[in-house]
Automatic annotation (TrEMBL):
It comes from Octactis speculum. ATP binds at K47. It comes from the Eukaryota. Keywords: ATP-binding, Kinase, Nucleotide-binding, Serine/threonine-protein kinase, Transferase. InterPro entries: Kinase-like_dom_sf (IPR011009), Prot_kinase_dom (IPR000719), Protein_kinase_ATP_BS (IPR017441), STKc_AGC (IPR045270). The keyword Nucleotide-binding applies. This is Protein kinase domain-containing protein. SUPFAM superfamilies: Protein kinase-like (PK-like) (SSF56112).
Amino acid sequence: TNFAEMRLLQRTPTINDFELLEVVGQGGFGKVWKSVNILDNKVYAIKIQSIKDVQFDATKMAQIRAERHVLEIAHPFIVRLHWAIEVNDSVFLIMEFMSGGSLFSLQSSRPMKKFTEQETEFYIMETSLGLMHLHAHNICFRDLKPENLLIDDRGHVLLSDFGLSKVHNSSDLLHQSVVGTPEYMAPELVQSQMRGYSYEVDLWALGCLVYECLHGYSPFYAYAIRDTFIAILNGTPHRMSSELSREAADLMTDLLQLLPASRITLTELKSHRFFRSYTWDDIMQKRYDGPITISVAQSEKSLVRSMLPENHEVANERRTRTDSLDLCRKKQIP
């Protein structure tokens, strides 16, 4: 490499330095492209957000700003933002490309559409560490679900899609906006305009994630959203599998508490008996590869659709999706 080429590699890139290869996601504000930097041949994901049509919509502009803010916070389990480039009426978020697709797509390829307890343990530990980092920076995720957990080439999961995230301005502020995916909404989020809510909604969603990993469907899944909300407000999830360990059942129970103050905290989570196969330090340092090998063929089939913000504040894709895992849910729920 000569001196001129080194200077090119060291400067901040422009959008003309990237070749768009294929669309790997579609959402409310635009598309996510798999792309390559023509200067060094490295692959990236580029999310193109059009602000022309939403610049007078305060809510959607806030979602765009929130996502960029979160992505700028570096952490091993949060998708990395390399550069943000503004051109005319568009923002180009240039991020690391997650070749393994989403945890949802990986789960749909597993036997019985679910993970083992040890596999679940690994993914929940990594997810929890990412959540801890968000909360330490006064950020409430508000849309934790398998679609928003992306997998890298070593099988690690990283949090993504922060368009619905909210930054706390003070320690005692309660949010009141109804946002998120119905099946993963906490009771206080469903009733947010009456009660308000805070970080504990992410703990409830984490409990839903544990349940879905171990069962193949979410704990409050129903054909109608109204029935989902009734089950959430009553705290009546589908029954747990009798094949699960006592520790797994206890973890779900500890997280899916109706009262926010009764839920286990992320700090307490680190000493829970369910987490016994790995140490938290080993997980944080990524000393192990993920428990499931991500094949090239599987990676190419996995669309990184969850890297995009939703079309609506309340995400409805779980109501309309017709993929194999959704059909499996309908058949398996007791």
